[in-house]
Fold:
Amino acid sequence: MSAFKQFTTKDVVITPFDVNKTFKFTGNPITGSEVGIDFYTGIKPPINSVFVSASAQKTGFTSQEFTTGVYGSIKQLYYTNYLSQSWGDRVPTQSIIPGVTREDDRFKGPGYSPIYDNYLQSTVTQSRFFPTDVGSEISVISIPSKLYGENIVPTTFKFNYTSSAAANYTASITDNQAGNLISASTVVGQIFYSHGIAVFTSGGLANLASDITGSSPVQLTSASTEFQSSFRIYENQYKCTIRENEFGYSMNPSLISGSVSGSSIRQDTYYDYVTSSFFSPYITTVGLYNDQKDLLVVGKLAKPIPISRFVDTTIMVNYDL
Structure:
């Protein structure tokens, strides 16, 4: 049995907060179905070729993509401002100083602005390199959203790899918090924290994905990756207040001493102390319902608590989503 009371807006507080979780994978489990981290090779197609060529080879472990499509997508999303110069292509603009009338407006400039967004990861001016020669290769590590949540926490991404194609080539990659991937103090690519994407565009690491996927997945035994994810959780707090004149009666069936059957109506008989003015019910469970009276949340108290007949009784219900 239960009784209902409507919440007011001041009784409900919803607070968002971010929590971090560390992931570390080594060897073949990196691309396993329960993890799903994938490696893609991107290759620059011949000039005047279609964006995604059906004749191009496919790449990836868990999800197959065309190498030309990977190259074009990464270039469009993250490097369209960095094709002619490493510090970004900027176009001149002018600022308008409004006057009393339109004839009094003044233009001051030139100013410069990026052409595209390209998902800069910090306010620090970033240098990016992207290969544009035909046949140029890039490598992409794609982390699924089920792992990185809202974003990868900056400075926590680490990737270690020993190449089987190049003798004694060992790389240890970290991110520098501003979106650059660093190997031996050299920038070898970029990481996009909110997308779970790491792109390698220079050095031996540009061929990392083809080295891993080219012959056999067993090459993953020499790889490990580590990062922290950021997940946003919402703490819901409900203030359940019982006034001193509310819920003074219990519907617990153990209070019934018997019943009297009439011609068509059954009447329950309660123990005498239940009908006394000194009777105070105890609370053992609090349930939260929606407008359709569907039970959504159940909170069990550590021990039964009596409802006061003189002051308000307040129970705080907290749960996270």
Remarks:
- The CA atoms of residues 103 and 241 lie 65 Å apart.
- The chain has a mean pLDDT of 83.
- Residues 243-320 form one domain.
- The chain has two domains: 20-80+116-232, 243-320.
